[in-house]
Amino acid sequence: MAGNQTSPNVARFDLPINDVEQQATLEVETEEYDYSKRAQWLRAAVLGANDGLVSTASLMMGVGAVKQDVKVMILTGFAGMVAGACSMAIGEFVSVYSQLEIELAQRKREKERRNNGGKDEQEEGEKESLPNPSLAAAASALAFTVGALVPLLAASFIKEYKVRLGVVFAVVTLALMIFGWLGAALGKAPAVRSSLRVLVGGWLAMAITFGLTKLIGSSGL
User: Is 30 among the domain residues?
Assistant: First the structure.
């Protein structure tokens, strides 16, 4: 009787353990899958925001090195924002569209090698996983514009030249740290290292643009 009672108990405890292990495995796989699907729009958004912030701020700081008029600084930043957003959107669209064509060609070759059977469900899943050029282009343009608005708004209401440059530098520094931390948090990367990398890169871009423009302006060219 004791032996007969042991087997059902063992079986009854084994099944929940296996279920828990399978559920944990599925959760890990789902989490990894979510991060892989997030990569496309995350890359476009983070790069677009950083480019908009750094390039527009660098343009404004460069012009500010030789021109103290606030209108000139704002117009330069606005022109850089529009041109950069269009450039980012077109570049991202062309890049992702090329990637889409490559994947479609590869899947067409694989489809020709496969036999008939179970194609509908597989093809439906493949369509959902294809890159979207329009979405990537829109995300890049929008993110670039958001980043570019930071230095533009910071400088719009300050007429004093030196104060304006200092405010733009301070606001851009804060925004660089936030964008770096946000990109790291969404991508599960080290936050401090990512923020410092973005911050130092932005500082270098503004310093080089300011210094070279100041040098050329002082030479009378």
Answer: no
